[in-house]
Design brief:
The protein is an alpha/beta fold. The chain has one domain: 4-Layer Sandwich (Purple Acid Phosphatase, chain A, domain 2), CATH 3.60.21.10. The chain is built from seven helices and 13 strands. Strands 4-5-8-9-11-10 form a six-stranded mixed beta sheet, with no helix packed on it. Strands 3-2-1-12-13 form a five-stranded mixed beta sheet. The longest helix is centred in the N-terminal third of the chain and has 24 residues.
């Protein structure tokens, strides 16, 4: 019995020791939360769902939250009357995250845009900019450089793209980094995705950045560690040319109606150690859809 107890004690001491070393080696931890899809009706009790996800992030001791877009469904609102409703929803958007003691960085999604050509909202990003500033920007956390893209700009030839002005900005900002500086990109619309083979059993060039090759050519000489993507509501990981593309599932999964093709309600938890090694996992936060 004494031998057995001694073995258990040694295992516990080893676990505590390794846990301490692991904690000391952690440099940065953040949550990538995408596709929340709150609405004015609060259907399926989705506001409480988001609060539950935020509770999980807080308990995970994240340093900040990176939002992947589609926080609110306002894209169908186009009239002058609905603009005031959309504005009130943006106030709620900002308030929800500011009430938490965690920094947050928003990415613009297609559903976050107030888009209606007939009344002049050509790009639909004006409301976003009035609350959060420019729709594409960079920030730095503990030596890791984050670039948040506006991937829902309207390509005149159809679909979404990164326009020339944004591309020039990206080139300039990257040129100020060394080739070894770790870089993370956040984009709502993916560069790559297998969404359509999964969902519709076909390969099709839809719902991706249409000039993705042009953007990747800008990135190729830099230390791109992760490209975090949204839009598709699935969790997928694609490694191409030594760049890890991760579609981060969806906080709402199947629009708050349960899992979506095997992806549960959740978010990506990313950790970076002091050697700039990146690890991640997709975590569920225990939401049960209302039936």
């Amino acid at each position: 019995m004494k031998v057995k107890n001694s073995v258990i004690l040694l295992v516990l001491l080893l676990f505590v020791s390794l846990s301490g070393l692991y904690a000391k080696n952690k440099k940065l931890r953040f949550a990538f939360m995408t596709d929340i899809h709150l609405n004015k009706e609060n259907s399926n009790d989705r506001y409480n769902g988001l609060q539950q996800a935020l509770d999980k992030a807080e308990k995970s001791n994240v340093d900040f939250i990176l939002l992947g877009g589609d926080v609110f469904d306002i894209s169908g609102m186009g009239s002058s009357l609905e603009k005031s409703v959309a504005d009130s929803l943006y106030k709620v958007y900002k308030q929800i995250f500011e009430e938490r003691n965690i920094s947050f960085y928003p990415t613009l999604g297609n559903h976050d845009r107030l888009f209606n050509e007939s009344i002049g909202y050509v790009e639909g990003d004006e409301l976003f900019k009035s609350y959060f500033g420019e729709s594409y920007y960079k920030f730095e956390q503990k030596g890791v450089h984050f670039f948040v893209l506006n991937s829902v700009q309207n390509n005149p030839e159809g679909g979404y793209y990164i326009n020339k002005k944004q591309l020039e900005w990206l080139k300039k900002e990257l040129s100020e980094l060394s080739s070894s500086d770790p870089v993370v990109l956040s984009t709502h619309v993916p560069f790559y995705s297998l969404y359509y083979p999964l969902v519709e059993n076909r390969y099709v060039f839809l719902d991706v950045i249409t000039n993705y090759k042009e953007v990747l050519d800008v990135l190729k000489d830099y230390n791109i560690q992760l490209v975090l993507q949204g839009h598709q509501h699935i969790h997928e990981e694609i490694l191409l040319q030594n760049i890890q593309f991760i579609t981060g599932g969806a906080v709402c999964a199947n629009w708050w109606n349960g899992p979506f093709y095997g992806t549960k309600e959740g978010f990506l938890l990313v950790e970076i150690d002091k050697q700039n090694k990146f690890t991640w996992e997709y975590v569920s936060y225990g939401w049960e859809a209302k039936k």
